[in-house]
Design brief:
5-stranded parallel sheet; 21% strand; Rossmann fold; GMP Synthetase, Chain A, domain 3; 657 residues; alpha/beta
Length: 657
C-alpha cells in the first residue's frame, strides 16, 4: 500500500523564507540590478544583512507592528528589501504606482493611515512633499536614489543610506531586535495591502496575509515545476499584484533570481541580455512587442518580407499544434523546422524570449489572434486567471492543454462555480482577508460561506477549462434593429481590433443600442512608420489621426474584424457599424485608463458623450475639445473635428447557411 503524499505546507512568513535561502545558499544570486550598463548582484546573504539593517532603522524611526508603510518606485533591490524589512517588524508595505500623479496617492495614504514612505527618487519625493498638507500623517520619507536631492532640507526627509546607518546604531544597542521580530511573525499576519485600480470610485485596499500570498505562490510553483534556476525580469509596477506575485512572492517561495532593469527605456535591451526563463506580462506588453515586429518587417526588404509571410503562414497553421505536443504531417514538420531556423528562432531572440520556458499573460483578456501568434512561433505563452483579491492564481493553463479562448483549469485548492447570473464564483486559500476599512465592500464580494464574487461572466467547458466572456457588468445585449437581443461583449471586440499593430486602444459601445460603434486610438509608432513610408506628412498625433488615408487604413482593420465576427454565431451581431479615431490617446492621467491601462468605460462614455451621440445620430463629423494633463503637470486642451466612418458589416455565417 502506498503512503499518502504529504501536502506541501506554506512557509510561515516572507522574512523567514528569505532567511532560509540566506542560510541554505548564501552566495547564490537573489537580485540583480543594472546600474550604468553593468549588472550588479545581490546574494541571499547580502540581502539578509540589508533587510536586517533596514528593519532596525525603521524600528528606530518608530515603525511598529500593523503600521502601514508606502513603497513607491521602479523595481529596485533596496525597495524589495524595504518590503521585507517592514514585514519582519510586522508592519504592512503598501506599494503604490510610481507613474501616478501625486493627488492619486492622497486617498491610499490617508485611508491606510500611512506615516512612513520609502521611495525611489526625486520624482517620487517631490510628489509626496506636495501632499504633506493633504496627508498630515505622513511624517518620514526616505529616498533610494540621491540624484537631484542634495540640497533638499525638508523635515523628515532623508536617504536610505542614512536609514541604514541609523539601523546599524540601533542594532548595536538592540542586537536581538530583528530575530525576535521575525520569530513573532505568523502566517495569518497581514503581509501587504494592494489598492485596486479603481475603475469606479475610490480605490479599495485589498488586504492579504503571508498565508494567502504564499499559498498561491506555491500553488503556481508546483503547477509549472518552478525551481531556483529560473530567471525573471521585474519591470512592471510593484503596486500591481501580478508583478508582486511573480517577482516577490514566488521569488521567495522558489528562490530564483529577479533582475531589475536599469530603466523603463532599457527594458527591451535588458530582456535580451537576461533571457528570462519565466516571463509574465499583461496583454498590452505583448501587443507592443508584436507592433514592433510588424514595423520592422515593413522596413525589411522584399525577400525578407516574403519569407516572413510565407513561414508565418506555416506557423499559424501548425505551430500551436506542435507546441501542444501533437503530431503534424512530415511536410509541415519540415517546413516548420526550416521556419524555426530562418524566422521563428531569430524572432524569439529579437524579442528576448530565446530561453523562455513558461510565459504568462494576465490582467485582462488577450485577443485570441495575438495569443496564437506567440504560440505559433514556439513561445510557451499561456493564460492565467485571477485578480488582486484572489492573490492572482485561480486558473492556469497546463502545458499541452492550451486553448486560445480559455484561461485554464482551477489549480490546487481552488473551487469554481457559475452563478445563475453567469458570474464566476471562486473559493480559494488565496482570497483577500478584507477590503481595508470597508466592510460594506467586503460583504459585497465575500459570501458568508467563503465564496468570492469575481464580477466576471463565463463558464466551464466540457474539458473543465474556464472561459471568460467579459466583465459581467460590461456584457450586454443589442436592442432594436436586425440584431435585437444579440449578445454584446465589448472587450472581445476591442481585443480583436487591438491585434492590428495600427490600433493601440479601442472602446466599443452597443449595450441596449441597435448597433455597435467604437472609438479607436491609433498606435503612433506603427501608423507613423506606415505614413512615413508613404511620404505622408503629419504634425503630431491629432493631425495623423485625422488623415483620410489613416481613416481608410483603420476602416480596413475594422472590416476584417467584422468578417471574423460574422463567423461567430454568438457574436455576429457585435460587428462595428461606425467608428471614429480619437484626437488624443487615452491616458491614465486624464482619468480614461487605470494605472494598469484598463479602460474606464463609464468615464469615457460620459466624457465623450457628444461623440457617442454623433456616432449613433448618423452625423458625419463632430467637433470636440478635451482637457488634458501633460507629463510636467501642466493642463491644456486638445480640439479637433473628427470624421465618423461607416464600416462594412457581413451576414452571419449561421444566417447565411
Amino acid at each position: 500500500m502506498s503512503l499518502p503524499q504529504e501536502t506541501p505546507t506554506v512557509p510561515t512568513t516572507f522574512p523567514r523564507l528569505m532567511l532560509d535561502h540566506a542560510q541554505a545558499r548564501p552566495q547564490a544570486a537573489a537580485l540583480r540590478e543594472k546600474v550604468y550598463g553593468i549588472w550588479q548582484t545581490t546574494t541571499w546573504a547580502d540581502l539578509a544583512v540589508l533587510v536586517k539593517r533596514l528593519a532596525a532603522g525603521l524600528a528606530q524611526a518608530g515603525l511598529k507592528r500593523d503600521d502601514h508603510i508606502v513603497i513607491v518606485g521602479e523595481n529596485r533591490p533596496r525597495l524589495y528589501a524595504t518590503m521585507l524589512a517592514a514585514q519582519a517588524l510586522g508592519a504592512v508595505p503598501v506599494p503604490l504606482y510610481q507613474d501616478a500623479a501625486g493627488p492619486e496617492y492622497t486617498f491610499p495614504i490617508n485611508n491606510a493611515g500611512v506615516g512612513f514612505a520609502v521611495v525611489e527618487d526625486q520624482e517620487q519625493v517631490d510628489k509626496l512633499l506636495e501632499l504633506r498638507e493633504a496627508c498630515p500623517g505622513l511624517q518620514r520619507i526616505w529616498f533610494d536614489d540621491p540624484r537631484g536631492l542634495r540640497h533638499y532640507s525638508e523635515a523628515g526627509l532623508d536617504s536610505v543610506d542614512a536609514l541604514l546607518l541609523a539601523g546599524d546604531a540601533h542594532l548595536a544597542a538592540h542586537p536581538k531586535l530583528f530575530d525576535e521580530a521575525v520569530a513573532a511573525g505568523r502566517p495569518e499576519d497581514v503581509a501587504a495591502m494592494f489598492f485596486t485600480s479603481g475603475t469606479t470610485g475610490n480605490p479599495k485596499g485589498v488586504v492579504h496575509t503571508h498565508h494567502t500570498l504564499l499559498d498561491r505562490a506555491q500553488a503556481g510553483q508546483r503547477f509549472d515545476k518552478l525551481t531556483s534556476a529560473e530567471e525573471v525580469l521585474a519591470y512592471m509596477p510593484l503596486a500591481w499584484i501580478g508583478q508582486n506575485i511573480f517577482s516577490y512572492a514566488q521569488w521567495l517561495a522558489c528562490g530564483y533570481v529577479v533582475n531589475c532593469p536599469e530603466s523603463s527605456a532599457t527594458v527591451m535591451i535588458d530582456l535580451k541580455e537576461i533571457g528570462p526563463t519565466y516571463y509574465f506580462a499583461p496583454p498590452r506588453v505583448f501587443e507592443g512587442l508584436l507592433t514592433s515586429v510588424m514595423i520592422r518587417m515593413e522596413d525589411a526588404g522584399r525577400i525578407k518580407r516574403w519569407m516572413f509571410q510565407r513561414f508565418m503562414d506555416v506557423a499559424r497553421r501548425v505551430g500551436p499544434t506542435i507546441m501542444d505536443g501533437k503530431s503534424v504531417g512530415l511536410a509541415d514538420r519540415i517546413a516548420y523546422a526550416l521556419g524555426n531556423l530562418l524566422v521563428y528562432g531569430p524572432l524569439r531572440n529579437t524579442l528576448g524570449f530565446s530561453r523562455v520556458r513558461v510565459a504568462y499573460t494576465a490582467g485582462e483578456a488577450i485577443g485570441p489572434d495575438l495569443f496564437t501568434f506567440y504560440r505559433s512561433i514556439g513561445i510557451n505563452l499561456k493564460q492565467l486567471y485571477g485578480s488582486t483579491e484572489t492573490a492572482v492564481f485561480v486558473c492556469l493553463q497546463p502545458d499541452h492543454e492550451v486553448k486560445a479562448d480559455t484561461v485554464g483549469v482551477p489549480i490546487d485548492g481552488v473551487e469554481i462555480r457559475v452563478a445563475d447570473s453567469g458570474e464566476i464564483m471562486v473559493k480559494s486559500p488565496g482570497l483577500l482577508k478584507e477590503y481595508y476599512k470597508n466592510p460594506k465592500a467586503t460583504a459585497e464580494v465575500l459570501t458568508a460561506d467563503g465564496w468570492y464574487h469575481t464580477g466576471d461572466a463565463g463558464f466551464l467547458d466540457a474539458g473543465g477549462h474556464l472561459k471568460i466572456i467579459d466583465r459581467a457588468k460590461d456584457v450586454g445585449k443589442l436592442a432594436g434593429g436586425p440584431n435585437d437581443g444579440a449578445m454584446f461583449a465589448p472587450k472581445y471586440v476591442e481585443n480583436k481590433l487591438k491585434f492590428f499593430p495600427f490600433i493601440k486602444e479601442a472602446v466599443a459601445f452597443g449595450n441596449q443600442r441597435e448597433k455597435v460603434c467604437a472609438f479607436v486610438n491609433i498606435d503612433m509608432e506603427a501608423v507613423g512608420n506606415w505614413a512615413e513610408r508613404r511620404n505622408l506628412p503629419y504634425a503630431g498625433y491629432t493631425d495623423l489621426a485625422a488623415k483620410p488615408e489613416v481613416l481608410e487604413l483603420i476602416r480596413d482593420c475594422v472590416e476584417k474584424v467584422n468578417a471574423d465576427l460574422a463567423a461567430d454565431a454568438m457574436l455576429a451581431g457585435s460587428q462595428i457599424s461606425r467608428f471614429l479615431v480619437l484626437h488624443k490617446e487615452l491616458d491614465a492621467d486624464d482619468g480614461e485608463l487605470t494605472r494598469t491601462r484598463k479602460v474606464r468605460r463609464g468615464s469615457i462614455a460620459d466624457k465623450y458623450l457628444v461623440l457617442v451621440d454623433a456616432l449613433y445620430g448618423g452625423l458625419k463629423e463632430q467637433f470636440i475639445e478635451t482637457a488634458v494633463k501633460f507629463e510636467d503637470g501642466r493642463s491644456g486642451s486638445v480640439s479637433a473635428t473628427l470624421k465618423i466612418v461607416d464600416a462594412k458589416t457581413f451576414p452571419s455565417v449561421k444566417a447565411a447557411a
